[in-house]
Design brief:
By secondary structure, the protein is of the alpha/beta class. 39% of the residues lie in helices and 14% in strands. The chain has 14 helices and 13 strands. The strands form three sheets. The chain has a seven-stranded mixed beta sheet with strand order 2-8-7-6-5-3-4, sandwiched between helices. It has a four-stranded antiparallel beta sheet with strand order 9-10-13-12. Strand 3, helix 5 and strand 4 form a beta-alpha-beta unit. 50% of the residues are buried.
């Protein structure tokens, strides 16, 4: 594997400002090929999709290309790729659609490890349908959410299990394939929030066994919109609310209004960028993505080890990320110091490491951090060892 971090960083114009970014879980910086793809899409003729005019053909090619690119990234079928404004919006849309068939006595499982975007839509849909919400807990001491934790709240009335593939707050990666298999055995559907997961690990929808998987390209170097992947045959069984004249074909029946063509072009470029992270790789796009993510995981593991060792040498820090399998994400709090003060202190030194709950409100409360949360450090493909040195030096200075 070849991971040339110097060459990679040179392709991110935002890095020229000199900031060391540890805010990847909230959204990554954008590489030049993605910026150029967005601009190029807007610079050519564009109109509603079709096959007659150049603008129509350009729009059609962008959408078709983006579906294939995201299918390659997620190990899915292009006919199962649905685009939306955000992962939150897509989850709300699908919660309303699925809840049409729920009734009193039915049950929905959510977890306290999840971002609220994979909790509140299901809770609210269940309340409207008269269904019961059952909560799967995680161990706050270890950060682990196990298959047994899900099994404990499953029943023959479970209609859906909503679970994160990786906690955006503490990084925990639950055993998703095992959890999805449990849901399937119970006769339930599984909805997996992969927003944080997809930025660090190559997804295989079939291997995970997830019925629905959502992610956000802006978490992995692309523009701001949402993506849902599912089996086309499953999507064909669902009847979302839609306009009468809009198409009823899958996946378009779930996409409301005109798609953001320029952002879809940018997402294709982001996937291609990820496929080029291992400069020695060749083959199909999926094969190059396999190699690229392997190289990325190796790079991030090296930096994560550097961070973990550096934090262990500092006094006055409490670490809340302990799961054996987790993304390169660390949540911390400080003895007698506010995390918001640390955030500002680091920002003044050109180090971006934000504080808060990051919408994982249930996780923060379960950890005993209330609605304040902690300081989160998260890696992205462009971070390097010098960034980590600056972070550790800044934290050391803050702690005095």
């Amino acid at each position: 594997m070849t991971y040339d971090i110097t060459a990679i960083r040179s392709r991110f114009p935002a890095l020229r400002a000199g900031t060391a970014h540890f805010d990847g879980p909230g959204g990554t910086q954008t590489p030049e090929p993605v910026i150029r793809a967005i601009a190029d899409a807007l610079a050519q003729p564009l109109s509603n999709r079709g096959r007659e005019t150049l603008g129509e053909r350009n729009a059609e090619a962008i959408v078709t290309g983006a579906r294939q690119a995201l299918a390659d990234l997620l190990g899915a079928s292009p006919e199962g790729i649905v685009f939306g404004r955000s992962a939150t919006q897509l989850t709300y849309d699908f919660s309303r659609t699925l809840a049409k068939d729920w009734a009193p006595g039915d049950e929905v499982v959510v977890t306290r490890l999840d971002h609220d975007a994979n909790i509140r839509p299901w809770v609210q849909a269940a309340e409207r349908a008269g269904a019961t919400v059952r909560w799967a807990d995680f161990d706050p001491a270890t950060g682990e959410l196990t298959a047994d934790d899900i099994r404990a709240v499953l029943s023959d009335r479970t209609r859906l299990v909503a679970v994160t593939a990786a906690s955006n707050l503490i990084g925990t990666r639950p055993p998703i394939a095992e959890i999805c298999a449990l849901a399937r055995e119970a006769g339930a559907l599984s909805h997996v929030d992969g927003v944080h997961h997809a930025a660090h690990t190559l997804v295989d929808l079939e291997g995970l066994g997830a019925d629905f998987f959502v992610c956000s390209p802006y978490k992995f170097l692309g523009p701001h919109h949402g993506v849902l992947a599912a089996r086309p045959e499953l999507l064909r069984t669902l009847r979302p609310d839609k306009l009468l004249p809009s198409t009823d074909v899958v996946p378009e029946r779930f996409e409301l209004g005109t798609l953001p063509y320029e952002f879809l072009a940018g997402s294709t470029a982001a996937v291609d960028f990820l496929a080029g992270l291992d400069t020695a790789a060749d083959g199909t796009r999926r094969q190059r993505l396999v190699a690229g993510f392997a190289a990325l995981e190796g790079h991030e593991q090296t930096l994560r080890t550097q961070i973990d060792k550096g934090l262990a040498a500092l006094r006055g820090i409490r670490i809340h990320s302990h799961a054996a399998d987790r993304t390169p994400t660390v949540l911390m709090t400080f003895e007698h110091r506010a995390t918001a003060d640390a955030y500002r202190f680091l920002a003044e030194r050109g180090i971006q490491a934000p504080a808060g709950t990051f919408y994982a409100i249930e996780t923060s409360r379960r950890l005993g951090l209330g609605d304040t949360g902690g300081l989160r450090i998260g890696l992205a493909p462009y971070n390097n060892s010098e960034d980590v040195d600056r972070l550790l030096a800044g934290l050391s200075e803050f702690l005095g």
